[in-house]
Description:
This protein is mostly helical. The chain has helices at residues 40-57, 66-75, 79-85, 93-97, 107-115, 123-126, 129-145, 155-164, 171-177, 183-195. It contains 10 helices and no strands.
Amino acid sequence: MAKPxxxxxxxxxxxxxxxxFSHAPLxxxxxxxxxxxxxxxLERLIRVAAAAEWNLTRSDTGAVxxxxxxxGFAFGQDAASRFVREKRRFRLExxxxxxxxxxxxxxxxxxxxQAHTTQLPSPEVxxxxxxxxxxxxxxxxxxxxxxxxxxxxxxRHLLAAFLHRNPAERxxxxxxxxxxxxxxxxxFLWFAQxxxxxxxxxxxxxxxxxxxxxxxxxxWR
Length: 221
């Protein structure tokens, strides 16, 4: 994958780039691959990710990538995003700093507005190879945990991909965010089993652990 463009101005706050916005009805978000659909929450997270990349680097090529998907969780309102944000050790700044980028808490409103007004390019341009990889992993997890492997992808499947199927070469990125500890994936599984009871999250455990009683409350925070 080509190296993402660096922040040309070194700015600490999001610039206003009106040329990319349109007040026309948004076209449907193109999924990253065939026979894949996203629920409304994941579509919103991906639109936030694309808006973040555009504003940070002024590029829409590969706007949805590994780092901006993490940004999507940082600014999401769905249950999986709230789970991430409520963890005391989660930090977005070190991951952004690794690309010489930064966001402030005041930028959330800007990203949310732009995510709902920006027309996105075709999948070939929109998704970087790292995003394709993570979304493919999320689709595999959806097939494992969903009834009959059916249904759209949601943020919960994508977060499980980050925590349970994260590529080895990306391990340092999770550590930078504070979610690379061994307990974080298990904490999410405990949460997922109670938040999405209709899905079979035990399918992600190592098989010998599936028959063990699950604690009534998490042993870690």
